[in-house]
């Protein structure tokens, strides 16, 4: 069976359909979904094994047969642990076909064919009874269905269903319980990934401030968690405003409710400041006593955490809808709302508790300003990067003249606003946008800065730009950051190059293009930990999982290089300035290890293991002015 996969072509910006084999890229998906990282997570594996052994013993002590239900078996690991621990039979459920096939092979290879039945179904499709998938309900429920946010992979509805239809009342669950912890902080760095901070522009006639529209300031954003390695966040990047408190916990051995709800805690700020961010993580107790605990607590909460590296479970950063000033010692209420798959937070000043309770709306937040739909967190971060903004200001000042006619091609860029504030008031600005969502966002922006009459927004793809869009004017300055929402990899923003070629008939013969050129840089690196996510496991807790390793084919860097090299096949480059880019890209073909220098790569600075290559782009805006995506 073939599958059609929709994909935005980053070179042309067009949406394309690709016909793929049913199992195409699934191996990549598996690799990306951090399976290898999970299997390398010794702490997780040993604690699951301990918890499973303890649960099997408890059931046996009661004189019962140990019948295990393992939902989301993956490689079959937890079922094999249960079978080794003496379980009488295991039903291993796995919805993802290639994975279920691998589980069958792994179970067989490890000699558990008679003890483990792999069922390739979603757990909600599983039937129980003499002719069903399971002969009877299980009395041990084992799962590992958690993501960084705990519930984002659908653990709650899966548990809810399993308790109703697949397991016995009073079953043993491994893990037994999960607890979610929170801590309130102020952090300019993290806040800049969610809101646009005022941008200061030093113009000839004084300092100007670009403000964001009120719709953006008061926007609750989107309920998608920002998951990061808090263990890599230095303490200097945030101020702790509260102690760590338990937000909520879930007992997996009892019926679970997945319906939307909220939890509320009272917090006494330990410091006055601006409450902006809720940091959150969870731990799981593998047994009822809580002695076998696997925690995601960051280093300042549990000092050994810094050594327990894992990438498949990290920590969560939740942005409050607005920053809220809090005073040391003055109580506040923090509310966690959740639906089946995500969590979001609200903070309220303590009034009467009853009064506060009436304020809780559990509806999921909806982005009102569009920015949270169009810009991801790195994009917010880039727009808030004052140093980066300074490079654009410097280069715009160089290229803009009083009689310039300027066209900007970049998604949701503030370049024309910057340019306008730099003083060239007579300059005419056109802004090409491809989607109406961008149109709306920019319009809000221009309006908030009283520029709606100064910058004309044109909604058209570059190929379809007409002279009438440009009021029959020729463009003398073409600018782009460049940034496009469809770009996933560093060089995808070279779409600007394509767009520039597409609008060539509208450019004057001596047009200035900013950026002038671009270069792709690469460095071979040795990772401290990240190598684990792609590294073969061989055996995991004594079980042979090599079949899994064989599935995760590490694609060779060669393929990435081939993709980039393919972008050189453009014969429609008009302007000289762009020949620089072409040359650099031709050079790229020759170069293997280091930064594009035009000469042979330098020798490696030290011996080590080359785990991978990092690639990034540098855009050369004007002579000696560059911005880097590195
Ligand atoms: N248990 C394995 C793998 C955990 S990853 C281990 O601990 O190493 C979670 C797996 O569960 C994924 O393979 C996913 O496809 C599967 N899965 C998630 N929800 C499921 C459900 N409701 N029914 C069946 N499989 C599910």
Tell me what you see in this structure:
This protein has 18 helices and 29 strands. It has five domains: 2-31, no CATH class; 32-176, Rossmann fold (3-Layer(aba) Sandwich), CATH 3.40.50.150; 178-367, Hnrnp arginine n-methyltransferase1 (Distorted Sandwich); 377-512, Vaccinia Virus protein VP39 (Rossmann fold); 519-628, Hnrnp arginine n-methyltransferase1. Residues 554-598 have low confidence and may be disordered. With 630 residues, the protein is an alpha/beta fold. The structure holds S-adenosyl-L-homocysteine. S-adenosyl-L-homocysteine (SAH) binds at residues 38, 71-75, 77-78, 93-96, 99, 122-123, 144-145, 154, 158. Residues 38, 71-75, 77-78, 93-96, 99, 122-123, 144-145, 154, 158 line the site of S-adenosyl-L-homocysteine (SAH). Pfam families: PrmA, PRMT_C. It catalyses: L-arginyl-[protein] + S-adenosyl-L-methionine = N(omega)-methyl-L-arginyl-[protein] + S-adenosyl-L-homocysteine + H(+). Its EC number is 2.1.1.321. One of its GO terms (molecular function) is histone methyltransferase activity.
Query: Could you say what the CATH topology of the largest domain is called?
Result: Hnrnp arginine n-methyltransferase1
- The CATH C-level name of the largest domain is Mainly Beta
Number of helices: 18
Largest sheet descriptor: 7 strands, antiparallel
Distance between the termini: 41 Å
As a percent range, the share of strand residues is 25-35%
**Tally of strands:** 29
CATH superfamily membership of the largest domain, which one? Answer: Hnrnp arginine n-methyltransferase1
